[in-house]
C-alpha cells in the first residue's frame, strides 16, 4: 500500500483493467450477498459470512471469482461488502485478494483463470458437510447431487436455480478481459 497508494483510492493495480466493462446487475449482486445464487458452495460461503462475519480463504477466492468473473460485477463492490461484513477485514489483504480474484491486481495467473464453483465444491467439500451446515434447504440432498442439484430437486427443496450459466459466463468474462489495451 505504501508503494502503490492508488490502491487505497479504489484503483486497480493493473491500469489497463480499469477499462473492463462491468455489468450493472443489482439482482445478481443481491443474490450473491444473500447466498441465493444457485451455486451451493458460493451460497454456503456467503451465508456463513453473513451469519458469522468470517469465511475461509478458499471460500473468499471462490466467492470473489464468482462475483467478479461469472457475474462480471465490479470487484470493488465485493471488496466493500467484505470489509463491511468481515470481523477480520484488513484493507490491504482484502484489496489484494479481490484484485487477485478479479485479475486486476498482482497476479501470477492471467485473466482467463475463472473458478468453476461446482468443481471447487466437489474438491474441497466432497461430502457437502459445509454446504449442508449453511444451506438447510439442501440438508437431505445426496452428496452426489448436492454440488449442482437438478432443476426439479431445487424446486422441491426451495433452492434457487443458478443465476448464471457457468459456461457462458466464463466465456463472457474472458472476452471482457481479452482485448484490453496494455497501457
Describe the structure.
- The chain is mainly α and 183 residues long.
- The chain has one domain (17-178): DNA Cyclobutane Dipyrimidine Photolyase, subunit A, domain 3 (Orthogonal Bundle).
- The chain has helices at 26-34, 40-52, 57-70, 75-85, 91-102, 117-124, 129-134, 143-146, 151-157, 166-178.
- Helix 2 (40-52) crosses helix 3 (57-70).
- The mean pLDDT is 94.
Secondary structure elements and their pairing?
Blueprint (H helix, E strand, L loop, with lengths): L25 H9 L5 H13 L4 H14 L4 H11 L5 H12 L14 H8 L4 H6 L8 H4 L4 H7 L8 H13 L5
Helix pairs in contact: 2-3, 3-5, 4-5
What key attributes describe this structure?
DNA Cyclobutane Dipyrimidine Photolyase, subunit A, domain 3, 183 residues, mainly alpha
Summarize the structure.
The chain is mainly α and 183 residues long.
Number of domain modules:
1
- One letter per element, helices H and strands E, the order comes to HHHHHHHHHH
What about the largest sheet? none
**Rg over CA atoms:** 16 Å
β-strand number: 0
CATH fold category name: DNA Cyclobutane Dipyrimidine Photolyase, subunit A, domain 3
- The level 1 CATH classification is Mainly Alpha
What is the arithmetic mean of pLDDT?
Answer: 94
- Strand pairing plus helix content: what structural class? mainly alpha
**CATH H level: which superfamily?**
DNA Cyclobutane Dipyrimidine Photolyase, subunit A, domain 3
Distance between the termini: 21 Å
| CATH architecture title | Orthogonal Bundle
Assign a percent range to the helix content. Answer: 40-55%
Low-confidence stretches: none
Dominant shape: globular
Portion of residues in beta strands equals under 5%
Quickly count the helices. 10
Amino acid at each position: 500500500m505504501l508503494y502503490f497508494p492508488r490502491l487505497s483510492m479504489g484503483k486497480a493495480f493493473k491500469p489497463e483493467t480499469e477499462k473492463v466493462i462491468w455489468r450493472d446487475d443489482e439482482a445478481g449482486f443481491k443474490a450473491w450477498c444473500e447466498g441465493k445464487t444457485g451455486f451451493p458452495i458460493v451460497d454456503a460461503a456467503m451465508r456463513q459470512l453473513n451469519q458469522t462475519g468470517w469465511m475461509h480463504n478458499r471460500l473468499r477466492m471462490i466467492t470473489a471469482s464468482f462475483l467478479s468473473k461469472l457475474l462480471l460485477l465490479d470487484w470493488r463492490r465485493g471488496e466493500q461488502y467484505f470489509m463491511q461484513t468481515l470481523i477480520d477485514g484488513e484493507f490491504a489483504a482484502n484489496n489484494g485478494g479481490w484484485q487477485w480474484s478479479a485479475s486486476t491486481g498482482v497476479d501470477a495467473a492471467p485473466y482467463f483463470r475463472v473458478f468453476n464453483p461446482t468443481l471447487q465444491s466437489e474438491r474441497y467439500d466432497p461430502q457437502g458437510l459445509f454446504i449442508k451446515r449453511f444451506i438447510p434447504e439442501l440438508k437431505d440432498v445426496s452428496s452426489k447431487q448436492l454440488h449442482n442439484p437438478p432443476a426439479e430437486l431445487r424446486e422441491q427443496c426451495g433452492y434457487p436455480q443458478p443465476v448464471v450459466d457457468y459456461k457462458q459466463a466464463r466465456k463472457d468474462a474472458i472476452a471482457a478481459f481479452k482485448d484490453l489495451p496494455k497501457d
